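Please fill in the sequence for the structure shown.

STRUCTURE ENCODING:
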């Protein structure tokens, strides 16, 4: 059974940091792209960052570039999202998702391409 389990969300003040974790099981971890998405109230789900399974390339949304860092630990089958300099607009439920093949890497933020999803973890940034 495929599982993606997110953790690490919480309440933090603006300018603070959080590290999210996405623990994966039930598939060959290194073969999959793992992406963090987020969805704020009343807004569409958006791609935040992706780590490629083939070469661990990393992709970021412009809104989080230079503040967030994605990483993966193959020994633990876990992907991390280190979030620094958090802003109130980062408030959302954060989900991790997995897909084996992306037709084009630049399409990493297209949620419809993903096969597996976690249940989400909530991040709230207070001003």
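FILLED IN BY: designer on duty
SEQUENCE:
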């Amino acid at each position: 059974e495929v599982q993606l389990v997110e953790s690490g969300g919480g309440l933090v003040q603006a300018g603070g940091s959080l590290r999210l974790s996405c623990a994966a099981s039930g598939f060959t971890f290194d073969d999959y792209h793992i992406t963090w998405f987020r969805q704020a109230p009343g807004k569409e789900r958006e791609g935040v960052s992706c780590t490629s399974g083939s070469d661990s390339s990393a992709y970021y949304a412009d809104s989080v570039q230079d503040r967030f860092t994605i990483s993966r630990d193959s020994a633990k089958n876990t992907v991390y999202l280190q979030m620094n300099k958090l802003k109130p607009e980062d408030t959302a439920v954060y989900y991790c998702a997995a897909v084996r093949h992306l037709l084009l890497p630049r399409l990493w933020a297209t949620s419809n391409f993903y096969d597996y999803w976690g249940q989400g973890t909530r991040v709230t940034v207070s001003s």
